[in-house]
Automatic annotation (TrEMBL):
Residues bearing PTM N6-(pyridoxal phosphate)lysine: 73
Orn/DAP/Arg decarboxylase 2 C-terminal domain mapped to chain residues: 44-384
Organism of provenance: Aromia moschata
Residue span, Orn/DAP/Arg decarboxylase 2 N-terminal domain: 50-282
GO cellular component: cytoplasm
Protein name, entry field: ornithine decarboxylase
InterPro entries in the cross-refs: Ala_racemase/Decarboxylase_C, De-COase2_C, De-COase2_N, De-COase2_pyr-phos_BS, Orn/DAP/Arg_de-COase, Orn_de-COase, PLP-binding_barrel
Reactions performed catalytically: L-ornithine + H(+) = putrescine + CO2
Any GO MF annotation of the entry: ornithine decarboxylase activity
Cofactor(s) required, per the database record: pyridoxal 5'-phosphate
Listed GO biological process terms: putrescine biosynthetic process from arginine, via ornithine
Keyword DNA repair among UniProt keywords: no
Length: 451
């Protein structure tokens, strides 16, 4: 088939389609196939949809009582939202635009929690217009706003309970003290005639201490009891986010702690329990590939010892302002050569980003890498969380394109077995062209077996 003859709309459909691969997903092999095209020199992601499905199933097995509301801010790419919507999970939205994006997928408003304790008036009005009723608060000012704009909303009081070892501690910005402040806020809500239905907390993004979940659930129990004395009938507990997003950590440990705490403090199964995972679902599904556009040999002098080291500098086609922006928040990404020459000695190396900013340094310290050259590729695993959603195009470098793949089993689930099946038109399979573009000016042949 001549792709050059396709109209732009049809070409866009092929570009955005997810490839169905019969064999097990081997991301490095997929990266190699894509980079074989001589015209491919822009950075890109490979998103393994099968990994997202696997994470969903592992969660259900570990915490069957806890429904998930995906934190859209973590990665708001359309393919991710479509897959999670198909699986039937809910969504944690923080703004009008995030709500709009989720609703555009056909998701019903009762599958959304407006989980921003400080909402703009116009965003509250939009929630009211679109029947998104469930939302959080942690202050009297927020209660007054809701009373004025959306008095029929169902409210969830956010309490503060931090894991101080988490990568991002949130309690200094959001959440009320569950002993000192929560009772007063509930009394204000009662005086305003507002409908408070439950409690939420977030122990911190990328939490390190799972036991904090148990302590936070106990604190939520206290607020439930206070609310009952004030005449409220709480039926919702939101245990927030903070779940691991790397391959080496299992959700099982947190699951055991959460399950035990729920059994102890919330044995009444009529209480609905939800959560707001973000990086858990998407981080390991995304791999970033970027080419080397320049190489330089340099001598570095240690400021203390004055020792000199010859270092090989690699300049790649992405940056800490783009797909690797989480480096600003102390995230560490390990560069891996796509094609490894086992005979090449390891050299002290530094990987620099594509912008002209001297802060644009991808490897914080000198690392050992085999000797590589211009136009060779390196890749970074576990690049799905807080990358796409917060990157920018500083210095004019575009956001990498996403190339999504799924195995046969995942494809069957998404198109026939999930609560909200996806259309088969969203996939490149046997009855579709085997030639398609990957953000290129010409066709690219992807040789992995289809069925």
């Amino acid at each position: 088939m001549d792709l050059d003859g396709l109209d732009s709309q049809k070409q866009s459909e092929i570009d955005d389609a997810t490839q169905v691969i019969k064999s097990p997903i081997d991301v490095p092999s997929i990266l190699m196939e894509i980079t074989k095209n001589e015209e491919q020199d822009d950075p890109f992601y490979v998103c393994d949809i099968s990994d997202i499905i696997k994470r969903y199933e592992e969660w259900k097995a570990a915490m069957p009582r806890v429904a998930t509301y995906y934190a859209v801010k973590c990665n708001d790419s359309r393919i991710v939202l479509e897959v999670l919507a198909a699986l039937g999970i809910g969504f944690d939205c923080a703004s009008k635009e995030e709500i709009r994006k989720v609703l555009s997928l056909g998701v019903q408003p009762d599958r959304i929690i407006f989980a921003n304790p400080t909402k703009k008036i116009s965003h509250l009005k939009f929630a009211a217009e679109t029947a998104v009723t469930l939302m959080t608060f942690d202050s009297e000012v927020e209660l007054q706003k809701i009373k004025k704009v959306y008095p029929s909303a169902r409210l969830v009081i956010r309490i503060k309970y931090d894991d101080l070892s988490a990568r991002y501690v949130l309690g200094q910005k959001y959440g009320c003290d569950h002993v000192i402040e929560a009772p007063g806020l509930l009394r204000v809500a009662a005086s305003l005639g507002l409908n408070v239905v439950g409690v939420c907390f977030h122990i911190g993004s990328d939490s390190k201490d799972p036991l904090v979940f148990s302590k936070a659930i106990a604190a939520a129990r206290h607020v439930f009891d206070v609310a009952a004395n004030l005449g409220f009938k709480f039926k919702l507990l939101d245990i927030g986010g903070g779940y691991p997003g790397d391959k080496k950590k299992s959700i099982k440990e947190i699951g055991n702690i959460v399950n035990s705490a729920l059994e102890k403090y919330f044995p009444d199964l009529s209480v609905e329990v939800i959560s707001e995972p973000g990086r858990y679902y998407v981080n390991t599904a995304f791999t970033l590939a970027t080419s080397i556009n320049s190489v330089r040999e340099a001598v570095q002098t240690d400021p203390e010892t004055k020792d000199q080291t010859k270092v090989r500098m690699y300049y790649v086609d992405n940056s800490i302002y783009g797909a690797l922006i989480s480096i600003f928040c102390d995230e560490v990404y390990t560069p891996r050569p796509l094609e490894v020459d086992t005979t090449s000695p390891l050299r002290p190396s530094i990987v620099w980003g594509s912008t002209c900013d001297t802060c644009d340094k991808i490897t914080k310290d000198v690392v050992l890498l085999p000797e590589m050259n211009i136009s060779e590729w390196i890749f970074f695993e576990e690049a799905g969380a807080y990358t796409l959603s917060i990157s920018c195009e500083f210095n004019g470098f575009a956001t990498p394109k996403i190339h999504s793949v799924v195995d046969e089993e995942g494809w069957l689930k998404l198109t026939s077995q999930v609560p909200y099946p996806l259309s088969r038109d969203k996939f490149v399979i046997g009855n579709k062209p085997e030639y398609f573009r990957i953000g290129l000016t010409g066709p690219n042949k992807f040789k992995t077996n289809y069925f």
